[in-house]
Amino acid sequence: MEPSHTGAEPADAFLPQNLSGPEDAPADAEEPAAVPSLAEQTPPDGAVPSALRRDVRALEAQLLGGERSLHRREVAASAGVSLLSARKIWRALGFPNLGDADKAFTPNDEVALRRIIDLVRAGKLTEDAAISLTRAVGQMTDRIVVWQVEAMVEDLVAARGLSDAQARQELVTILPELVEPLQEMLVYAWRRQLAAGVQRMAVRAQSGLDASEEGRDGDEDDAPLPLARAVGFADLVSYTALSRRMNEKTLAQLVQRFENKCAEIISVGGGRLIKTIGDEVLYTAETPVAGAEISLALAQAFDDDELLPQARVSMVWGRILSRLGDIYGPTVNLAARLTALAEPGTVLVDDVTAASLADDDRYVCQPLPEQNIRGFGDVRPILLSRGRGTGLVLD
């Protein structure tokens, strides 16, 4: 949006059109929908013990950097943007809707909003990039918080014999001493992960591109996609039937053991765990060899585990699109289809992936009968087995 030279400039004149465009409402605009006030969303005083309420307020002040003292319009004005522009950022972060009467923000919220906006004003990020990066932070930190809280509650229940409700109340009194260490760990891990991402992007990417020349680059379905990767799935056998017979605690232990084992093997193998979906994990690696090592190690690990069922595993080498922390493309779909065809405890690949491993005596590739796979036609699955060597070694 161009600055106005005929009068007072709007507060967000230096932002791109989409952050400060005509859809932004004037300061006295009505909410598009009724929003419950913060007071209406908060349980009445009598519903929560006074000591617990006091502890919650103290913890909140520690986490937010002070008492909630600012309205949303005050924070937006301080950052020099319209309310709707500020709300785009807050929605991306996952914040709930708030009304004009709610004192929900602190000076730290002003600083954070201004930092995001200034990146756009300085031309370091486009608005779309700023919103996407902000949404990534909001979604990932939300998951981190839920995971950490549940892990600590579970530990309190097991170690102290508390009920779930008691453990959640007790956690409020314990958290103040854990906030700083957890925050430091988060920043440390983020920096390490970013450094690893730079390595994948700028240093080790060439090995994947070189390998792709021997693989799928002639496949018109995925050739336009930018990243050459090994894509794998591991799926627990009979998980649905098992989960119906388990109580909540046992099921939680099974899922946690499965996820922990997958994360460890994928990490040791130099891959990335993209996501877990109940009884299934999706992962990537930068070369066919790395993908094969991770896949064989996963199948073997669940074969050897006395508490977990076996797993069906597949791996396909090809090109993918990476967006919003997930991956897309025909390679991903083919790997998913092959997983359903695999026998428990085995790893399936396709013929292109097998060809990229054919000259490596660490692997044995055994063709199986052709199968008609939805969306791909007739495909010959290849059974991948261990040849020479011992494979991944876990500490």
Automatic annotation (TrEMBL):
- A Pfam family recorded for this sequence: Guanylate_cyc
Region feature Disordered, mapped onto this chain: 1-47
Which EC class is the enzyme in? lyase
Arranged from A to Z, the UniProt key words for this protein are: Lyase
Q: Does the record's keyword annotation contain Lyase?
A: yes
Write down the EC number: 4.6.1.1
Which superkingdom heads the taxonomic lineage of this protein's source? Bacteria
> Where would I find the Guanylate cyclase domain in this sequence?
230-339
InterPro entries per record: A/G_cyclase, Nucleotide_cyclase
Q: Does the keyword Membrane apply?
A: no
**Single Gene Ontology MF annotation:** adenylate cyclase activity
Tell me what this protein is called.
Adenylate cyclase
